[in-house]
UniProtKB/TrEMBL annotation:
Its membrane topology: Multi-pass membrane protein
Name the record gives this protein: Olfactory receptor
Gene: Or13j1
Species annotation: Rattus norvegicus (Rat)
Main location: membrane
The entry's keywords: Cell membrane, G-protein coupled receptor, Membrane, Olfaction, Receptor, Sensory transduction, Transducer, Transmembrane, Transmembrane helix
Transmembrane residue ranges: 26-48, 60-86, 98-120, 140-158, 197-225, 237-260, 272-292
Domain annotation G-protein coupled receptors family 1 profile: ranges: 41-290
Domain of life from the UniProt record: Eukaryota
Subcellular location: Cell membrane
Record SUPFAM superfamilies: Family A G protein-coupled receptor-like
Keyword hit for Cell membrane: yes
Amino acid sequence: MEPSNRTAFSEFILKGFSGYPALEHLLFPLCSVMYLVTLLGNTAIVVVSILDARLHTPMYFFLGNLSILDICYTSTFVPLMLVHLLSSRKTISFSGCAIQMCLSLSTGSTECLLLAVMAYDRYLAICQPLRYPVLMSHRLCLMLAGTSWVLCLFKSVTETVIAMRLPFCGRHVIRHFTCEILAVLKLACGDTSVSDAFLLVGAILLLPVPLTLICLSYMLILATILRVPSATGRRKAFSTCSAHLAVVLLFYSTIIFMYMKPKSKEARISDQVFTVLYAVVTPMLNPIIYSLRNKEVKEAARKAWGSRWVCR
């Protein structure tokens, strides 16, 4: 994965927010708390969904996958970002940069597909309740989740190899707090058309297409909810769906802004802010919106916690 002309340097400098010291001091406690909430919330969901047999359903299988994804996604760069926020030396090795880029691309891309799969699962559960157990079989769940992970890993490895084999001509200051592929490509002094083409095709397949499927699924869900006779039931369903959609739209809108806007050689602070929104804020909100507001998860968590104290 190392380019033949990489003799001038063996590491990149992540400039990040170093031009804004006050912002660094503000971001460190905020991102630390959000990362801690992300780890605790998502880990709790994975543990509870494994321990409680009542949660061994397609919905919680996909939620468990989403939680694992969020933990992996934020862990690819947040710990190093927190160190750099307090340090004057903000470096990452060439190979470390490539690994970080590949893992963040892979987990972020997988989340785009998994959110669409989850919306389809909810559509079948609400709009086709009688056929749901047959349509969403255990085998299909494994196939949908496994395909999302494998395809996105293959895509990300390919994009990373192409990007990191470009000549950088000694330019090694990345104007970002992570080895984000767009920020790295700005340093390349060779032809980036192949990388740009791969990113554009990937962005189209992973952003507008899944988002359209998600919106269509929720439109059909809302149409079904409107036929519910109970006003309380309709209100509860609307509250849940609107919360889901709010998180999904925040995630997709910020990524679409990053990856589908006109390319510019100038690095902007807004790019880093949007990265914080979709890569730090959204993984923190997912367990709160999708699971911790859910009555079944709360009961399962109380049961698991009570059993723990009884065993002691």
